[in-house]
Input
Amino acid sequence: MKRILVIEDDPDIGLSVKYNLERDGDFEATVVRDGVEGIKATISQPPDLILLDLNLPGLDGLEVCRRIRGDATTASIPIIMLTARVEESDTIRGLELGADDYITKPFSVKELVARVRAVIRRSERPEQDADVLTAGDLQVDLAGRRIHVGDTEVALTRKEFDLLVDLMRNRGRVVTRQRLLERVWGYDHPGETRTVDVHVRQLRKKLGAAAGDRVETVVGVGYRFRGTN
Amino acid sequence: MRIRHKLLLILIATALAGSALVGVGSVWLLREATREHYAARIRAETALLEDRVRVGADDYQALAVEAGKSLGVRITLISPDGVVVGDSAKGIQGVLEMENHLGRPEIQTALSRGAGESFRRSDTTNEEYFYSARLVGREEPVGFVRIALPSSWLNEVQSRHARLVTGIVLLAMLLLTGVAYAAVRRISKPVERMSDLADRTARGDLDVEVPDRGMDEVSRLGASVNRMKRALMEKIGELQDERVLFSSVIGGMREGLLVVGPDRRIRLANDALLRIFDLREDPSGGLLAEVVRHPTVIRDIEAAIEDGGETTGETVIRMDGPGHAFELHVTPLAAKEAGEGHSVLALFFDITRLEALEGVRRTFVANVSHELRTPLTAIKAFVETLIDGDLQDRDHSLEFLEITRKHVGRMEALIDDLTDLSLIETGAITLEIAEVDASAVARDVFEQLKPRAVRSEVRLDSRLPTPFPVQADRRRLEQVLTNLIDNAIKFNKPGGEVRIGGRIDADRRILEVEDTGTGIPSESREKIFHRFFRVDPDRSREAGGTGLGLAIVKHLMRLQGGSIRVDSELGIGTRFELDLPSPHSDPG
Output
């Protein structure tokens, strides 16, 4: 059974999340109501995943995320942010601080549980070592740097290839434009993110409708690759 | 040289020349006349003497001397062969020594024509003389008589004449000069005054006029000048009025105004602009880039100078210091010549307050959306959970429905409070201010909140005198007291107390609501009246608070002509004082 730590200040929302996570018997959830307690609980008994409300009294969610990522023993615990704020900037900051995903309030509990499952599955089966990444009829040969959609080979530029691989390795997870710039282009200038958009557009066109649609735009934040192995 | 002196000089020169001509002419005429006069006399005397000589005489020398004495002239008697026989200027011995006079010009002329004259220097006396000679006895010559008049005498007469003429001329000149001066003065004075007037007008003295009475050209000119000056003064007056109006308009403008010429120099700047850019003095004439050290402003203005482009409000500039934001509007003015570059008008609108208001609004919207989203999230989660098939689990279902109901209640309360606040702030509620018995209102509120107080084990205690009349709107006063007493119960501790009391302070009525609760930290005491501020957010929400109650209370008190203040001690309790007018005080 996987252990989930829910850091959420509203006890009723905490209760509904706990109830739904535990209902199928796959998870055991603990709810704490502020950031300090959350960090304490994370350190004393590291959970398999943390659901973190960004808008917490006292120590705010972003700071909690930063501290958990900053400690070697807790750095690899997956984090899904719950945010009541519409402001994109905090969400992006959270993703940049290393949060794995986010879900906006008011959320559907079913969707939340599905996200929790997806993130845990990914964290258990890292794809970094694989030679071939697949998603539906999309096949990426990492060693030979070749891409097939069904039986057809698709020619991609170097950047387009790297971009696709980065998104696939983080499948199900939002990757910010800034992250992509840093990892694929090696930039660290904010404001050059238009480059990413242009390449994503090219990539989708080359992959065709079915495979191209797997590269989803997360409005105002970045991109996410949809699909299982 | 002044016009008067010029005229005078010309007049005097003319007079001088004229006088000189007349003088010389007169002297010449007098001289001729004098000579003629004497010649005639000598001629007559010579003719008289001729008669004497024709009669004959014994001693011609004696005759010459005698006649010379009686006539006062020199008389010479000469024989037909030219030998001098008598001369009044000589003795007998002298006569004998005199040379032959037949060669003398007057004798030669007399010999041939009977009479002769000459004007010459005498060889005998070495003096200038006027000689007149006559031949005595035409058919049978007896001799010649000659009278000589010394020219010195004549000259003396002539020079006396000359002096007289010169005197008269000088006198005339003097008189003429005086008259000329007066005349010139009469003409030149108005001209000079006109010139003086023009000078003084130019210097700004506008109250002088030239004399313009009279019919001559100078007077007419004066009248024209006066008319012109009055028209000019009127125009100047209008211009000055316009200038004053213009400068008070731009000076009174709250917006900063800047006019820059195509040469990038400042043409005009108003006081507001000086304040915006912290300038000590009028920057007119200075270079744009040196006066306004703000790259965005310079960029926009330069662009407008170059291509006549207009920017309206897209540029917001921020100055040093907290919250100084200005919207920049740049409008090119018509270029004087094509291709010359435009003058540019730049206006700076202060949007600091607007931005602050916008910030308040944004925060408020964010708060409302957060406050609404939290219950909504809970409602959505539980409804979904119930739909997913937990309705069989009756205990859980009821619990979840109860939670859902609680959150619906929270949303409802929030929407109610927001509506109230919005109505109050937009002035859309009408109050019915009248005499109200506050003790009765307090009693009703206590009655209403009693169940909650009992649940929280809090005692309610009214120490208000009965009745305690105040000037208020009954319904709103009830709302205020409900809010305050509800809070006092919520933030109390079991076994605690909520008291309401009252006192009279001049024509004010003070209501006091006191509790024995947790108290408010001093740093939060003013903030409790702000919208969505909560001292203890968890406890507040748990108790169903919206975070708007005290903001509404404060507004309602103000609307009723009263005020509210708070006093608190941590761990001891909190006391609110409501200040309301007494019923009989003047509502104004």
